[in-house]
Amino acid sequence: MLHKEDGTFIKKASFPASAVTDVPMRITEDVYESKVYGPGDGRAEGSRYHLLYQAGTIVLQSEIDRLFAPAATVATLTPATGPAAGGTTVTIKGTRLAGVTGVNFGATPGTELKRVSDTELRVKTPAGAAGAVNVVAAADSGNVTKTSGFTYS
To answer: Rounded to 10 degrees, what is the CA torsion of 149, 146, 104, 128?
Structure first.
């Protein structure tokens, strides 16, 4: 049986009847936040780490999600077509692309991935069968798919 601090009984009706949508998560290791510091002239000299959450702390999933950047987006691929033999250098433009670690054309990874900026990537196409394939950019924040983003001719 459950009781309050003063000893009174807690009824089940006191708890929400529906499932919690913002699940509490236990932090498994100390989490630090970096903060830039400088001489006050607008130029950063370095960063300091501040303890944000100690291991064992219970935090809502929404709070954890807030700490990470939103998922990348893929707006355009140029060129959007190339030979089935592969080897076409494709420029991918979008947002938050700096965290992309790989790009697949269909199920096959592209090669020579180069991060030009947070909004631009370049990657060489692998060989593939004629037809359109999904292009999937893999990042820590989640995979982003451009449906039928590249067509092999």
So the answer is: -20
Asked if residues 117 and 46 have their Cβ atoms less than 8 Å apart, the reply is no
How far apart CA 137 and CA 40 sit, in angstroms, is 39
Q: pTM of the predicted model, to two decimals? A: 0.61
Q: Reply yes or no: is the peptide bond before residue 83 cis, omega within 30 of 0.
A: no
Task: Give residue 94's pLDDT.
Answer: 93
User: Tokens 């009984």, residue?
Assistant: 9
Read off the pLDDT of residues 121-141 as tens digits, 9 standing for 90 and up.
999 999 999 999 999 999 877
φ and ψ at residue 4, rounded to 5 degrees = -80, 170
Q: Which residue has the higher pLDDT, 36 or 26?
A: 26
Q: Is 140 left (phi over 0), alpha (psi -120 to 50) or beta?
A: alpha
H or E segment at 4?
none
Cα dihedral 126, 129, 134, 137, rounded to 10, equals -10
Amino acid at 146: K
